[in-house]
Design a protein that fits this description.
It is found in: Cell membrane. The chain is mainly α. It has 15 helices and no strands. It starts with a helix and ends with a helix.
Length: about 300
């Protein structure tokens, strides 16, 4: 990895985050008046003026923008209009819950999706292949919030095996993690199958077959490493999207994570919290994309030599 490679990547990351910061600021300032939204229609002009003075909303839009960018660069996203607490503290309290739920969902997706995709490619055209494809289409087409509601009706209300909300025990993880993980597993199974089928037709795999290498050895040591780059790409996108992807599921299961905080902030028009969460999601996406780009060099020596 050359210095030019790092400069280009870091430059793109910085530009992306700057554009998100600017777009979020303009979009939220244009959407509504925070003072009127927080104080309600019965607020007096004096109360509105005091609110604007307290939160610096009485300054010009450009001045607000400069203060916003300056504070954001130091990690200061201001105070929550609703709770009166630092936004960073509110988000920091919720991140561990979201990471725990997202991590378990991601693990479920990999443990189910990758093996199913490999088996479908190895036994292409068989009943197993068709079964995996049906699983992939059904779980991908089924919205995870709808799956979550079905799980609550069956396992919480009918069978009373699992709690429908909360996050205190491992039992609370099962339904939200399954609702998120199964849809990701369906996507991963389909991509794994396509990548493996593409690699299996290559000459080096046929050469290994001609030398008498067993099917499973060809799969694990010849085909799978060469199919890793497209798989790492889709897995990286899924990982980066976990924070945003948990929004609906956390709301369905009353999970106290970042996604539910975002829904609460949007419904209460808490502009400072919404701004910070949008930036957090953007930063997580560009960071994961950078890690995926770096992994290409580790997986493929040709990419490493070009960079």
């Amino acid at each position: 990895m050359t210095a030019q490679f790092w400069l280009v990547k870091l430059g793109r990351m910085s530009l992306t985050i700057f554009v998100v910061l600017t777009f979020t600021f303009i979009a939220l300032r244009s959407a509504y008046d925070p003072a009127q939204a927080m104080l309600g229609p019965d607020a007096t002009q004096r109360e509105i003026a005091l609110f604007r003075e307290k939160w610096l909303l009485d300054r010009s839009l450009f001045e607000q923008y400069l203060v916003y960018i300056k504070n954001a660069l130091t990690g200061n996203f201001g105070m929550s209009f609703r709770d009166g607490r630092p936004v960073v503290d509110l988000i920091a309290e919720r991140i561990p819950k979201t990471l725990a739920l997202g991590g378990l969902s991601y693990l479920i997706a990999i443990l189910i999706g990758v093996p199913l995709g490999i088996l479908a490619a190895l036994y292409r055209g068989s009943a197993l292949d068709r079964l995996v494809m049906i699983f992939s289409v059904v779980w991908f087409a089924l919205p995870n919030f709808f799956l979550g509601i079905l799980m609550i009706l069956l396992f919480s209300l009918t069978l009373q095996w699992l709690p429908s909300s909360g996050s205190t025990t491992f039992l609370h993880f099962i339904m939200p993690a399954a609702a998120l993980g199964l849809s990701l597993a369906a996507i991963l199974a389909r991509f794994t199958r396509s990548a493996m089928l593409d690699v299996q037709s290559k000459l080096y795999v046929r050469a290994a077959q001609a030398k008498g290498v067993s099917k499973w050895r060809r799969t694990l040591f010849h085909a799978l490493p060469n199919a890793a780059i497209p798989l790492v790409t889709i897995m990286g996108l899924m990982l980066g999207n976990l924070v945003a992807g948990t929004v609906v599921v956390e709301t369905v299961f009353a999970w106290p994570g970042v996604g539910r905080l975002l829904i609460t902030a949007v419904s209460s028009k808490d502009m400072a919290v919404v701004q910070a969460l949008v930036v957090l999601i953007a930063v997580s996406m560009v960071t994961v994309n950078l890690l995926v780009d770096l992994s290409y060099g580790l997986l493929d020596p040709r990419v490493r030599s070009r960079t």
